[in-house]
């Protein structure tokens, strides 16, 4: 990551896991669609900034219904 960012390496880091745990249930398609609406503008900005296609980050109701 340091090389990718072009910054000096820091060698004395300890990894910490955050927001790790099990969930009581899977996210519903309605919840996923709601969250997708919240993040859609951010995904568009990331795509423009990086020049990457992040279509796989976007909600697809047809795929979600099939899953």
Structure overview:
By secondary structure, the protein is an all-alpha fold. The chain has a domain at 28-67. The protein has 3 helices and no strands. It starts with a helix and ends with a helix.
Q: What order do the SSEs take from the amino end to the carboxyl end, as H and E?
A: HHH
Largest sheet: none
Helix content: 40-55%
Overall mean pLDDT stands at 85
Counting DSSP E segments of at least 2 residues, the number of strands comes to 0
**Overall morphology:** flat
Integer-rounded radius of gyration: 17 Å
Ends apart, CA distance between termini: 33 Å
List the helices and strands and how they pair.
Layout: H1 2-5, H2 29-50, H3 61-66
List keywords for this structure.
mainly alpha, 67 residues, flat, 48% helix
Summarize the structure.
The protein has 67 residues and is an all-alpha fold. The protein is 48% helix and 0% strand.
